[in-house]
Amino acid sequence: MSPSDKSDTDQEFETHVRSKLPPITPHEKEILLQVVSKPEIKSIVENKEINRVWTAQKTEAWQKVSLEFCSHLNVTQMSGDQLKKAWENLKGRAKKQVSKTKRSHYFFRWIKVIPYKMRCKLGLDLLEDEIVYKIDDYAKEVKKLHWISTIKKSDIPVNLHDASSFDFFGFGQHKRRLFQRNFCSFDGVWKTMITELSKIDQNLATKTFSSWKRRLRLIVEKDGRHIKNIKQIHKNFR
User: Fold this and answer.
1) A Pfam family name for this chain (predicted)?
2) Structural domain count, the chain
3) Residues 68, 115 within the same domain
4) Of the N and C termini of the chain, which has fewer Cβ atoms inside 10 Å?
5) pTM of the predicted structure, to 2 decimals
C-alpha cells in the first residue's frame, strides 16, 4: 500500500502512535549516536542540501539506521522517520544544554567544551554527559594503578605548604597530551585514555608533583593572589 492509499484514519493512528513513543533512553541514545556517526550514514543525513536526489538518499539512509537500530536488544522499535525526529530532538536539546554548561561540570576544568575535533567528527555535542563518566572512570584507573588522585581545580589546597604526592591536581602535561588526541568513537575515548595511561611512570609522577609543589609554595607566598600575579609567578618559576 502506497502512502497515498492510506485512509485518514490510518494516518491519524500512525501519528498517534508516534506521539505516544516513550522518550529515548540513554542506552538508545548511545546506539543511535553510534549508528548515525558512521561516515557513510552521517555524510548523508547531515547534508544540508535540499533536492530530490539528496532527499531520496536521506530517506534510504534513515531506513538503514532504523534496521540497524532495531537489531539491538532493549530498544524501542522505531521507523526511520521516528529516529530522524529523535535525532533532531537530541541535537536541539544538546545545543541548549551545551550553552548552559559550566566549566565546573567537567572533571578537567581547563576544558571549556568537548574538544573541537571530537565535535567535528561525530557531532559529539551529544556526548556531554557520557564524556564526563569516561573521564571519571579514567581518573579511577589512574588512582587504582598509581595511587594518584586527581582532584577538582576548585579544591586545590592553595593554603597548604606541602601535600602528599598521592593526592594532587597534577599531570598537566599528561592532561594536555590526552586531549590533543583525536577521538573517533565512544570506544576511542577510552582506548586513548588507556594508551596515555600506559605512558605514566614514577619519574613523570615525581617530576610533575615536584613542579606542582614549587608552584603551590609560590601561591602561598603570594597569599592566594596567584590569579593577578600569574605572570610574576611564571617569571619566578623559571
Assistant:
1) Myb_DNA-bind_5
2) 2
3) no
4) C
5) 0.36
